[in-house]
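Quick one, tokens below. Sequence please?
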């Protein structure tokens, strides 16, 4: 199984000047993480997909991705939970 160290740190993926481009990268990474069973990275990446939508004012889409993370984060994993709460403003 591939571990988190095989995926780039979340903060290194970000280009805040290009949230749509960043979203595509996070979606690709999320899919790759899901394929290898790296649930923590998958869920973290999905919180960042939500963030890219928030940055462009697409709050309904952002909420959709956060709801997915909330549903799939069972049992709760630490980093996805933290990122989820940050994006929800909790």
């Amino acid at each position: 199984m591939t571990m988190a160290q095989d995926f780039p740190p979340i903060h290194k993926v970000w280009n805040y000047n290009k949230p749509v481009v960043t979203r595509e990268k996070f979606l690709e990474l999320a899919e790759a993480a899901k394929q290898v069973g790296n649930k923590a990275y998958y869920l973290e990446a999905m919180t960042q997909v939500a963030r890219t939508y928030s940055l462009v004012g697409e709050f309904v889409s952002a909420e959709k991705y956060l709801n997915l993370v909330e549903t799939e984060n069972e049992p709760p994993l630490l980093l996805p939970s933290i990122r989820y709460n940050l994006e929800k403003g909790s």
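DSSP finds five helices and no strands in the chain. The chain has a mean pLDDT of 94.
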